[in-house]
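Quick one:
INPUT:
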């Protein structure tokens, strides 16, 4: 078998594994739980599984093969811009029907991708197996979001839990590494890269430092104990307005009992490891913490340059908020369609780098750019400090 065919076979197996992961999640939960919306920013679990099957079929059949027989009636159900999140619970199929339908279309799509007819092979999206990589990454991102849904579900099904040990606060260390002063190439031109990661370009920083490790749970607790959520001077004007409205005083999934703090995860309550990266804070909280620590958030270019030169440790525990907004790189060209990234270059979305405990390998690359509006804290997000 030729190397290219072996690569495609590996990708087919990887996509099939994604299918099984999604179906396993919905198959082991009570049927009513897969259509419940546990957070206003998160769709029901069953919708995610149906959406991934639809998107896969849309690209393979409707776009590449020109056959919309399966997808035409589902645009208003599974295209996010045509269906508000609040409406999605009523559109989720019953569990057995959902599993049967998605299983059938996945099998058909995998067979087509494994042995595409000649006219399919010639489509531009099939070059270098781009479409396979695109679908794998799309499913991987939704599987991560499904773990966020499962974590929110724990808020409703768990009563108070006793941690095995108390979390003790620690003042952040100022130990930092000097950012590289030589030019570093950023971005990614590999066929699997998203359009917002391209084109590659050089970045040079003539000074500044970045923390070797992300901010930990113990360090974040010190911020909380020092009154960080009550000290107006630590917050931007917009951040303080957000805090006044949100009325929060800890990360999104932290809970407190008389025995101390613990956190909820997709699988239930667990101890807060003191040296683990803090998770569940929005950009405004990350920014306030950095001010309290006498630091700043790194620009995403600083973050990537440090990562590419081997300076960063602890990457992948939590997505890390960066200081800048999501923007196009010089020479940006939209792909595979005009609206894939462009709508989010709106000045409202911040950039997160690195990955979380739920981020799967297909999207766990140094150049990958995650993005959310600055108020989102249901995601597995933390921060790393930097200094000029």
């Amino acid at each position: 078998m030729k190397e290219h065919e072996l690569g495609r076979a590996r990708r087919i197996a990887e996509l099939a594994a994604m299918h099984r992961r999604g179906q396993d999640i919905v198959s082991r939960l009570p049927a009513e739980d897969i259509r419940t919306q546990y957070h206003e920013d998160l769709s029901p679990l069953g919708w995610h599984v149906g959406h991934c099957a639809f998107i896969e079929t849309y690209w393979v059949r409707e776009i590449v093969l020109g056959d919309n027989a399966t997808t035409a009636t589902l645009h208003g159900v599974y295209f996010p811009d045509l269906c508000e999140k609040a409406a999605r619970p009523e559109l989720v199929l019953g569990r057995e029907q959902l599993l049967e339908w998605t299983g059938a279309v996945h099998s058909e799509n995998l067979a087509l991708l494994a042995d595409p007819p000649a006219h399919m092979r010639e489509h531009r999206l099939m070059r270098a197996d781009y479409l396979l990589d695109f679908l794998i990454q799309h499913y991987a991102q939704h599987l991560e979001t499904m773990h966020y849904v499962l974590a929110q579900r724990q808020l409703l099904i768990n009563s108070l839990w006793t941690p095995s040990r108390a979390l003790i606060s620690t003042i952040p260390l100022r130990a930092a590494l000097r950012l590289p002063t030589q030019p570093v190439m950023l971005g990614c031109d590999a066929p699997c890269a998203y359009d917002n990661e391209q084109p590659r370009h050089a970045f040079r920083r003539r000074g500044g430092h970045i923390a070797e490790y992300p901010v930990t749970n113990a360090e974040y607790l010190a911020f909380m104990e020092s009154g960080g959520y009550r000290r107006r001077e630590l917050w931007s004007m917009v951040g303080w307005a957000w805090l006044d409205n949100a009325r929060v005083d800890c990360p999104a999934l932290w809970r407190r009992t008389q025995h101390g703090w613990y956190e909820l995860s997709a699988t239930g309550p667990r101890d807060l490891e003191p040296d683990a990266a803090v998770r569940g804070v929005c950009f405004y909280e990350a920014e306030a913490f950095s001010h309290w620590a006498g630091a700043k958030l790194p620009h995403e270019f600083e973050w990537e340059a440090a990562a590419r030169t081997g300076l960063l440790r602890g990457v992948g525990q939590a997505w890390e908020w960066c200081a800048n907004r999501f923007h196009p790189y010089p020479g940006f060209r939209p792909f595979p369609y005009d609206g894939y990234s462009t709508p989010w270059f709106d000045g409202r979305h911040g950039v997160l780098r690195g990955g979380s405990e739920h981020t799967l390998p297909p999207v766990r690359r140094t150049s990958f750019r995650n993005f959310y509006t600055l108020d989102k804290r249901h995601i597995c997000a933390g921060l790393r400090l930097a200094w000029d």
